[in-house]
From TrEMBL:
Subcellular location: Cytoplasm
Reaction(s) this enzyme catalyzes, per UniProt: Release of an N-terminal amino acid, preferentially leucine, but not glutamic or aspartic acids; Release of an N-terminal amino acid, Xaa-|-Yaa-, in which Xaa is preferably Leu, but may be other amino acids including Pro although not Arg or Lys, and Yaa may be Pro. Amino acid amides and methyl esters are also readily hydrolyzed, but rates on arylamides are exceedingly low
Top-level class of the enzyme under EC nomenclature: hydrolase
Organism: Mycolicibacterium arabiense
Name this protein carries in UniProt: Probable cytosol aminopeptidase
Family statement drawn from the similarity comment of this UniProt entry: Belongs to the peptidase M17 family.
SUPFAM superfamilies: Macro domain-like, Zn-dependent exopeptidases
């Protein structure tokens, strides 16, 4: 099972009209809004004539459908060449539809149609890219580790027909497919259990993906890491029989730009394949959720592969530290001192604050490439969920870039929110024996303290952002919108939006 295939995205076709035949078993997805009379009204579309709209609305009315957001109603419409119609509510009518409303409605539709192999959608006339993304992500499932005993009996969604009349609809659908496929790649990594995804295996898979996408790939094994002085990655990884790695994936896209306009974006992602806490061991309750502690690494790898696939005109260099944080007789101890890559010494007061140790090494390495911007993302602190909950990433860093990353994150529906890094918190990281301690002595502002620690390792002149996704990377609640249980793929779409924004505006 180590060559698990993961999720296979459905094939997407764009059509400028309802297929006349051959879709007899397909379900047609139609957006509806709640009208003044509180009844569901089909959003006007060139693909349905007045008679078809009347037929659908009459059927919806008979069932009491209201068109509220996320409400789905399945009806039969005999005049149409499809098996049935799924009405998906968008809420109150609006003049224009934010992309995430369309993405979300598509996701809700896909989840409610589980078991349907072929869908036709008119949501794509409103926003082709968002409709395709939402359908693919809503239909996502991870079945690699189910035997025939519990494997789903029903078929996965395999065909999407996106109805759209715009000239660029095909390109938009292709882009939506690529973006959703990247998010699904990140989800697959997170959903692969720690028994099967350990640093060596993770590095091999990242390398294979990178090679297939035409990226330059470098992998440092434990000997190379030791020799080069990556004390943080070695320190965290040394309690495990499965040694650490540092993976570098490089997309060279800037040469498409004029010399003066060339930009370089560094990505860094936390790749703890399992976090027991180490000697500062975590409580047993919910420890299994620490399979998601490589969510930042998964997102970074998927994003640089997506940047290559989309041929974005920026250099993107991913630097991904991978380690398993285990307690053992070879593990680091609370009180140990290690030397981060670059020379700063750290007193490890708590071995469960391991993310910042591997990230500091990776950030220093990433800055050696002289990037214009650096985005680092990690499931770094439980304090992120205390401050912002399970769906809102905390974005910290240099003021302007932090705000830019958070704004783009809002735009794509991943909803990152800007947070400060108060100067005075640095005093809490003073050590009696080393340059820094890896934790402060208080419970205050845990998310920000981690960001303040990382700031010490970012080179002068590099605009940077730290995105804490402790909650948002992994959905432990019920499914919602286009997000199922387990790995979410956050913040792939935020990072990709930033990279494209840098390509467009510098
Ligand atoms: N991986 C955890 C953070 C985490 C918590 C991620 C919950 C996802 C859900 C991280 O390595 C950790 O253990 N952080 C400690 C830091 C503390 C020791 C300063 C924490 O948050 O308790
Ligand atoms: Mn930890
Ligand atoms: Zn961790």
């Amino acid at each position: 099972m180590s060559t698990a295939p993961g999720y296979q995205s459905p094939t997407v076709t764009v059509a400028a009209g309802l297929p006349k035949r051959g879709v007899g078993s397909a379900v047609l997805i139609v957006p509806v809004v709640s009208g003044d009379d509180d009844a569901a009204r089909v959003v006007p579309t060139p693909f349905l004539d007045a008679a078809a709209v009347d037929e659908i609305e009459a059927a919806l009315s008979a069932l009491g459908a209201k068109g509220g957001a996320d409400q789905t109603t399945r009806v039969v419409a005999q005049s149409l060449p499809v098996a049935s119609v799924l009405a998906v509510g968008l809420g109150k009518p609006r003049d224009s539809w934010p992309a995430d409303v369309i993405r979300r409605a598509s996701g809700v539709a896909a989840r409610s149609l589980s078991g349907t192999e072929s869908v036709v959608t008119t949501l794509s006339e409103i926003d082709t890219e968002a409709a395709v993304e939402g359908l693919i992500l809503g239909a996502y499932r991870f079945t690699d580790f189910r035997s025939d005993k519990t494997a789903p009996k029903d078929a996965a969604l395999s065909r999407i027909t996106a109805l759209a009349t715009a000239k660029d609809a095909k390109a938009k659908a292709a882009r939506g497919t690529d973006v959703a496929t990247a998010v699904a790649t990140a989800r697959d990594f997170v959903n692969t259990p720690p028994s099967h995804l350990f640093p060596g295996e993770f590095a091999d898979r990242a390398k294979a993906l990178g090679k297939a996408a035409g990226l330059e790939v470098e992998v440092l094994d434990e000997k190379a890491l030791e020799k080069a002085g990556y004390g943080g990655i070695i320190g965290v990884g040394k309690g495990s029989s499965r040694p650490p790695r540092l993976v570098r994936l490089i997309h060279r896209g800037a040469k498409q730009q004029a010399k003066t306009a060339r930009k370089k974006v560094a990505l860094v992602g936390k790749g703890i394949t399992f976090d027991t806490g180490g000697i500062s061991i975590k409580p047993a309750l919910n420890m299994h959720q620490m399979t998601s502690d490589m969510g930042g690494a998964a997102a970074v790898i998927a994003t640089v592969v997506l940047a290559a696939k989309q041929k974005v005109a920026v250099d993107v260099i991913a630097t991904v530290p991978m380690a398993e944080n285990m307690p053992s007789s070879t593990a680091q101890r609370p009180g140990d001192v290690l030397t981060q890559y670059g020379g700063i010494t750290v007193e490890v007061l708590n071995t469960d604050a391991e993310g910042r140790l591997i990230l500091a090494d990776a950030i220093v390495r990433a800055c050696e490439d002289d990037p214009d911007y650096l985005i680092e993302t990690s499931t770094l602190t439980g304090a992120q969920t205390v401050a912002l909950g399970s769906r809102t990433p905390g974005v910290m860093g240099s003021d302007d870039f932090r705000d830019r990353v958070a704004a783009l994150s809002q735009e794509v529906g991943e909803n990152g929110w800007p947070m400060p890094l108060p100067e005075e918190l640095k005093d809490d990281l003073k050590s009696t024996v080393a340059d820094l301690a890896n934790v402060s002595g208080s419970r205050f502002a845990g998310m920000l303290v981690a960001g303040v620690y990382l700031r010490e390792f970012v080179a002068e002149g590099v605009e940077w952002a730290h995105v804490d996704i402790a909650g948002p990377a992994y959905n432990t609640g019920g499914p919602w919108g286009y997000t199922g249980k387990g790995g979410t793929g956050v913040p792939v779409r935020t990072m990709f939006a930033v990279i494209e924004d840098v390509a467009a505006r510098g």
